[in-house]
Amino acid sequence: MDINYNDALFAVTEENLQKHAPHAEAAFQTAVQKTGRGNDFLGWIDLPAEISENDINEVEKCAAALAGKSQVVVVIGIGGSYLGARAVIEALQHSFRPMVAEKAPTILYAGNSMSEDYLHDLLDVLDQKDYSLIVISKSGTTTEPALAFRILKEHCEKKYGVDEARTRIVAVTDKARGALKTLATQEGYPTFVIPDDVGGRYSVLTPVGLLPIAVAGFSIRKLLEGAKAMRQLLLSAPKFADNPAMQYAAVRYELYNQGCKVELMTSFEPKLYFFIEWFKQLFGESEGKEHKGIFPAGAIFSTDLHSLGQYIQEGTRQLFETVLTVENAHHKVAIPFDEQNTDGLNYLQQRSINEINHIAQQGTCLAHVDGKVANLKVSIPEINEHYLGEMIYFFEMSCAISGYMLDVNPFDQPGVEAYKKNMFKLLGKPGF
Ligand code: PA5
Fold first, then answer.
1. Can 285 be counted among the known catalytic residues?
2. 178 CA → ligand 1 middle, Å
């Protein structure tokens, strides 16, 4: 993974970046020395190095058992309890997964909305497929996944009988607390524990992310190796000049102070759509408090160049862009030569689609820089487990540094409670 700021230097000079170096270094130390706010939620820092061979084996064993008897596995969870897994799975899997026959089951998602039609359609699919359920909730009490689980559990029990259903349902939750833990113990579901010191949005490298990713047929070992490599790089670099996470946090901080209140994370690779969703949640819930923080937004190009492109180029000057770049495609699709050349595309015939995509990216960046939108670039050579692992750890650490630079607690989310309280009151939940 590589990061560069060349196209942000018109706004963020080396000089004003250096001004933030001591602040970024101090914020990094606050995180790694565990001396700041939310310091009981810093378990993610050491996860990739500390996860044991036994824990990995357990996840792989359970994943193989579920995959062995399921055409579909439904991951039930919301926020940090599903976005990390989905980010990795959708980046790695075939773009049209449900339409191609592959060995691993198709992963579907539930519990992240309360759309009745969505649940109906999901049940329709589950009527016709062999399936299993992975229900994930750290608190074990979140309404959306709990409601989806109640419905899917009943469906599963009716379809397979209670005993067989118990072998098709796996719970990932707190070691002791919450309704899901109680239910899992009562029913005897295989259960994985979310460590106390890892919050939802930092939990992708625990069974929360690892189990669904392994079920989908991807290597959690390589993912962890990538994260471990990035951990090693960042933890061994206490100086600003050597630490890309501090630099990214400092560039963002400087742009924020200059009035850029929105970070638009973009990619020319649609497979990274959910990686951007994961990023949005990580930074949104970590930074957006005390009336501070950069609003994390996302876009996929070229698609959104034809919707948001106009605004980015000429709208209110309040945003900067971070472009996730994938250097190489895994496959080639040839551009055919056409005698008639009616569409005028023969001039592209010798080029690869990937090359053209990169040139579109270059052209976009030039245009946006002309329009005074600072562009940061995060590149990976290709999409694979290793580089996704590197990026996950990189953004997690950057987010912690960034939160501490803003002087907020990057590990709580008090604002999320507000809507829940209103909803419970309106629903007439006892006690609200
Ligand atoms: O990052 C977080 O902590 C949140 O987004 C949670 O993951 C989300 O609210 C789901 O919570 P739970 O896993 O307790 O159901």
1. yes
2. 13
